[in-house]
Amino acid sequence: MKRLQQALWRGYAIAAMGLGLGMLALICLCWLPFALLCHWLLPARQGRWLGRRMICWGFRGYLGFLRLCCGCRFQLDGLEQLASQGAQVVVANHPSLLDAVIILSRLPDAVCVMKAGLLDNLLFGAAARLAGYIRNDHPLKLVQTAQRELAGGAQLLIFPEGSRTRNFPLDRCLPSAGLIAQRAGVPVQTVLIEFSTPYLGKHWPLWRPPVLPLRCSLRLDRQFPPPQDSATFTAELENHLRHALAAAPLSASSSADSATIAPTTSPLPRAEQ
User: Fold this and answer.
1) Residues with Cβ within 8 Å of residue 6, at least 6 apart in sequence
2) I want to staple 198 with a disulfide (CB 3.0 to 4.6 A). Which of 41, 151, 189, 258 is the partner?
3) Phi and psi angles of residue 271, each rounded to the nearest 5 degrees, phi first
């Protein structure tokens, strides 16, 4: 009986994985032709307004589907209030491919820094371009575009590690977030992301089913004032995130699970958000 229960539970995990990934692809495909049409027809400002809100609403519905059908549990402490706090740089650790999906589902006027390849991707590119998301392959243009968006009141989402975490709890932070916040004169809001297991992380192959229930916690952490020196700020930010995540119980379990699977699996191809 126990073996039967284990087999049925694993079957459910596999089905949940297929449903979850399939639903995300379906949402993107359904919005794709409309995003292309709006990108051609609407002025840039109106297009960005519509594109960001459609992504927010679409991802919010997607999280509801994961909660209802796929054994996922989300605890998003304080994330709702972030949308009303005005222009700021939002930074978070990056354990999973789901990180941006979760944060953007609560920020209707967020602009996201993305890997350039995703902006050219057939599935995600049209929606990201309509929303005015920023490519990460031209550093100077990235900073200038981000500064302009922040001056217009938008919130900028950037993962300071530059990619999903390889060595838990945190990889080395890049200076982009501090430089942008310094130039724009806006505060930096940290968000801590914790998963019960590092599902869809660097060392978790796409075809490996999740360990259910998958628990995910996002909570607002310290807000830093506008940096005066980007290099000093980057070191301070990394130190703060590293210590905060090391003390978090879900992150500790993610770290242990990641250490277990890392030697026997090859990392996923480099991907952002």
Assistant:
1) none
2) 258
3) -150, 150
pLDDT band at 223 (very low <50, low <70, confident <90, very high): very high
Q: What angle do CA 86, 89, 93 make, to 5 degrees?
A: 130
CA 45 to mean position of chain CA atoms: 24
Among 48, 66, 45, CA closest to 56:
48
Peptide bond into 169 cis (omega under 30): yes
SS3 212: coil
Closest CA to 185 of 240, 142, 224, 131: 224
pTM of the model: 0.89
Whole-angstrom distance, CA of residue 136 vs CA of residue 261: 29
HEC sequence for 167-183: CCCCCCCCCHHHHHHHH
